[in-house]
Design brief:
5-stranded mixed beta barrel, about 350 residues, 8-stranded mixed sheet, single chain, alpha+beta, about 30% helix
C-alpha cells in the first residue's frame, strides 16, 4: 500500500512538472503534439479582428517575441472573442498550451517555421517579467540594402524627407491605390520607404522624427532596393528605445554640419545634398535648432526614467512572487521525501 502511494506521488509530481514546462519560443518546435507548454513573450503586433474572404468566420493574429525569436499566433472563430481583448501590443504575457504546427508560408510571413493556434486549452495571463526585449534586433540601413529582395527586415532611422501621398494605377488592373514615399536615414545609408493604402493617407509623422519598421519587405524597383511597408509590417514613430536616442544624437551632429553650410555630407557610401533634405529647417539658426532638439531629448529621457521606475516596481513584485514559489516548491519537495521515506 505504501509503495503504491509513493509511486502515485512520484507520478503526480512529474505530471505537475510536465504541465508547467517553460519553453523559449525557439524551442517550441520540440513540443510533442503542441500540448503542455508555456512561454513568456511580448506581443509585438496584434491585428484587427478580420473576416474570412468567403465571409464565413473571423480570426486575428499576433506576433509574439522573446529573447530567442518571434512566432505568429492565431485565434479563429469563438476563440477570437475569448482572447482578443486579453492581448495588448507591447505587454508581456505567460501563454500556456495551444496547437504548435508548421507555418503555412503562403499566409505566415514571420521569421519562424512554426506557428501557434490558440484553442480551448490555451491560457493567457499577464506577466511581470521585465527582461523580454521591446523589439527584435535592428539592422542598419546599409545591412538592409545588402539583403536579398523579398527579405523581411527590422530597422530604424530618421525621416529626412516626406513626400505627399499619390494615387497610382495597379498593375494589370484599372483599380488605383494610394502610396507615399519617405526617405529614412541612419549613420550608414539612406533608403526610400513606401507606405500603401490607409497607411500612406494617414501617415502624420514629420521630418526629423525617428521611425522604426518591423517586418518591412525589401523590394527592387528599377534596380534600386527599397523598403515596402506591408499589411503585416509594424511602424512606430519616436519609440522609447535606446536606438532612438542614439539616432537623435547622430542627427543633431548631422544637422550642425548642414547649418555650418557644408553643402554635402557623406552618409556611408551615399551622398545627399544637405540643402534638399529638410526644406522647413533652412532658415533656422544653429542655436534655435539645438535648443529644440535639447527639449525633445529631455522629454524622451524623462519618459524613459518613468518606464524604468515602473520596471523596478515590476522586478520587486516578480522577486516576491519567485520567493513565494521557491518556498512552495521546497515544502512540496519535503512532503514528497517524507512520503518516500514512509
Amino acid at each position: 500500500m505504501h509503495n503504491s502511494c509513493r509511486f502515485s506521488n512520484i507520478l503526480y509530481f512529474f505530471h505537475l512538472k510536465l504541465l508547467n514546462m517553460e519553453y523559449e519560443i525557439a524551442d517550441l518546435k520540440n513540443v510533442l503534439n503542441g500540448i503542455h507548454w508555456s512561454i513568456t513573450a511580448r506581443v509585438l503586433k496584434k491585428s484587427d479582428v478580420l473576416p474570412f474572404k468567403n465571409g464565413n468566420g473571423k480570426y486575428f493574429t499576433t506576433i509574439l517575441m522573446d529573447k530567442t525569436t518571434e512566432i505568429k499566433a492565431t485565434a479563429f472563430g469563438d476563440y477570437v472573442d475569448h482572447f482578443f481583448s486579453q492581448l495588448q501590443e507591447n505587454n508581456v504575457y505567460n501563454i500556456k498550451n495551444g496547437e504548435i504546427k508548421k507555418a503555412d508560408k503562403a499566409y505566415n510571413k514571420s521569421n519562424n517555421d512554426y506557428e501557434i493556434i490558440f484553442n480551448g486549452s490555451t491560457i493567457i495571463e499577464r506577466s511581470v517579467v521585465t527582461d523580454i526585449p521591446s523589439h527584435p534586433s535592428l539592422k542598419t540601413i546599409e545591412n538592409v540594402l545588402s539583403m536579398a529582395t523579398n527579405t523581411l527586415i527590422d530597422t530604424i532611422g530618421v525621416i529626412i524627407k516626406k513626400e505627399q501621398s499619390q494615387e497610382i494605377k495597379k498593375k494589370n488592373s484599372n483599380d488605383t491605390c494610394k502610396l507615399r514615399n519617405i526617405i529614412l536615414a541612419d549613420s550608414t545609408r539612406s533608403v526610400t520607404v513606401t507606405l500603401w493604402g490607409t497607411e500612406a493617407t494617414n501617415f502624420n509623422a514629420h521630418e526629423e522624427d525617428i521611425m522604426s519598421i518591423i517586418g518591412g519587405k525589401i523590394t527592387d524597383y528599377k534596380s534600386v532596393k527599397k523598403i515596402s511597408v506591408t499589411g503585416s509590417s509594424k511602424i512606430q514613430i519616436n519609440p522609447y528605445w535606446n536606438e532612438t536616442l542614439d539616432l537623435r544624437i547622430w542627427y543633431k551632429e548631422f544637422e550642425k554640419k548642414k547649418l555650418l553650410n557644408l553643402s554635402q555630407v557623406s552618409i556611408g557610401s551615399q551622398e545627399l545634398n544637405m540643402f534638399e533634405i529638410s526644406q522647413s529647417n533652412r532658415n533656422k539658426t544653429m542655436n534655435e535648432h539645438i535648443l529644440q532638439q535639447n527639449k525633445i531629448d529631455d522629454d524622451l529621457i524623462s519618459k524613459r526614467l518613468l518606464e524604468l521606475n515602473d520596471e523596478e516596481h515590476k522586478i520587486k513584485t516578480e522577486r516576491t512572487d519567485l520567493i513565494f514559489k521557491k518556498q512552495r516548491l521546497s515544502i512540496e519537495r519535503e512532503n514528497i521525501k517524507s512520503n518516500l521515506e514512509n
